[in-house]
Structure prediction request, 73 residues.
Amino acid sequence: MSAVFLQEKIPRFAVPAIIVLLAGSLLYSVFVTAQIFAWLVFWGGLFLIGLSLFVVYLLYRLVLAVERIADSQ
Prediction:
């Protein structure tokens, strides 16, 4: 597998959109609901779900690589 294949391009609008989303939700949670903990729980939960899915994906890739090695012998 080449290094070029592994590099994924992130769209230019994604990073500013994520920053605006995080800042907007932080401002809403501070000024409207006055609960910063709710913001931390929400985004922390989403982060943990994403991290868990990423680990499952890496384990899946590991299983595929082991099967490919076993089939080639």
Notes: Residues 11-72 form one domain. The mean pLDDT is 84.
